[in-house]
């Protein structure tokens, strides 16, 4: 299996990172994508990927948009030039109007620049969207070319109509993780039933959003299997099929063999 969205370079793993990765391997999670959230964090993602055999992304999270450089492309070029681990996507990038840690105008500018960069670099995009659906979709309608680009809505937690828009109109994948296991997530489970297995990839977003029965604890890549189990249950298919199909989808998305 692939954990398509983790933050294994986070300081919360400084004491036991190698053990955490070993537990993932023991659980059948052989590939981990560790996701950058600003320039410094993306650099740490790359260094961690280099020393632990992971895949990395580089991106500027909407929370960090206020500190983004004017020339994001130059900063990303420099990160890629210095990387010995595979950089498999741009992001996470997007809009988050829940906390508004950065002004919305800055979030939109930084999102647009990262979509443009990903397109020029022929890399897929990892999106983070929270309480900004209309603005986010508006930017996609301006900039997204589903024939030329690949994208995933990470930690998708919307309803069936939103899922259908992302999948049908934009050809996006949906990253599904711990939220699916929460009692209150009936709307999300309905969304997964609506789109089916084909557009789904599995993720943890660790150290955040641990699935039941670990809810509230530090999350880790090994726990992605819990969320996959719920996908199997609600779609009424074998867990082995969920693992095989979502892994193949993730490999195509990130351009892996
Ligand atoms: Zn996120
Ligand atoms: Zn994340």
Q: Could you outline the blueprint of secondary structure elements for this entry?
A:
Layout (H helix, E strand, L loop, with lengths): L1 E5 L10 H10 L4 E4 L4 H14 L2 E4 L13 H10 L5 E10 L7 H18 L3 E6 L2 H11 L7 E3 L6 H11 L2 E4 L9 H10 L4 E3 L21 H12 L3 H16 L3
Parallel strand pairs: 1-2, 2-3, 3-4, 4-5, 5-6, 6-7, 7-8
The structure holds zinc ion (ZN) (2 copies).
List keywords for this structure.
257 residues; alpha/beta; TIM Barrel; 8-stranded parallel beta sheet; 9 helices; globular; binds zinc ion
CATH architecture: Alpha-Beta Barrel
Order of helices and strands: EHEHEHEHEHEHEHEHH
Bound molecules: zinc ion
Count of the separate structural domains: 1
CATH homologous superfamily placement: Metal-dependent hydrolases
**CATH fold annotation:** TIM Barrel
Gyration radius (Cα, Å) is 17 Å
Structure description:
- Helices cover 44% and strands 15% of the residues.
- The protein is globular.
- It has helices spanning 17-26, 39-52, 72-81, 104-121, 133-143, 160-170, 186-195, 224-235, 239-254; strands at 2-6, 31-34, 55-58, 87-96, 125-130, 151-153, 173-176, 200-202.
- The two termini are 13 Å apart.
- By secondary structure, the chain is an alpha/beta fold.
- An 8-stranded parallel beta sheet has the order 1-2-3-4-5-6-7-8, sandwiched between helices.
- Strand 7, helix 7 and strand 8 form a beta-alpha-beta unit.
- It has 9 helices and 8 strands.
- The longest helix has 18 residues, at 104-121.
- The chain has a single domain (2-254), classed as Metal-dependent hydrolases (TIM Barrel), CATH 3.20.20.140.
- Bound molecules: zinc ion (2 copies).
- Residues 5, 7, 35, 92, 205 line the site of one zinc ion.
């Amino acid at each position: 299996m692939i954990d398509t969205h983790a933050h294994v370079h986070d300081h919360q793993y400084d004491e036991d990172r190698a053990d955490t990765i070993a537990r993932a391997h023991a659980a059948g999670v052989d590939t981990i994508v560790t996701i950058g959230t600003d320039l410094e964090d993306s650099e740490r993602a790359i260094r961690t990927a280099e020393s632990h055999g992971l895949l990395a992304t580089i991106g500027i999270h909407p929370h960090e948009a206020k500190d983004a450089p004017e020339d994001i492309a130059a900063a990303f070029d420099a990160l890629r030039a210095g990387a010995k681990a595979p950089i498999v996507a741009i992001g996470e990038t997007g809009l988050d109007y829940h906390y508004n840690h950065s002004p919305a105008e800055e979030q939109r500018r930084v999102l647009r620049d990262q979509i443009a960069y990903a397109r020029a670099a022929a890399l897929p995009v990892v999106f983070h969207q929270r309480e900004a659906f209309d603005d986010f979709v508006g930017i996609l309608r301006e900039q997204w070319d589903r024939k030329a680009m690949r994208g995933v809505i990470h930690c998708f937690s919307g309803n069936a109509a939103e899922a259908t828009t992302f999948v049908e109109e934009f050809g996006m994948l949906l990253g599904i993780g711990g939220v699916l296991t929460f009692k209150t997530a009936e709307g999300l489970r309905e969304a997964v039933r609506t789109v089916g297995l084909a557009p789904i990839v599995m993720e943890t977003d660790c150290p955040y959003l641990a699935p039941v029965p670990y809810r509230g604890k530090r999350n880790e890549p090994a726990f992605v299997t819990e969320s996959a189990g719920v996908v199997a249950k609600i779609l009424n298919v074998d867990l082995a099929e969920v693992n095989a199909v979502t892994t193949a989808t993730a490999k195509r998305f990130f351009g892996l063999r």
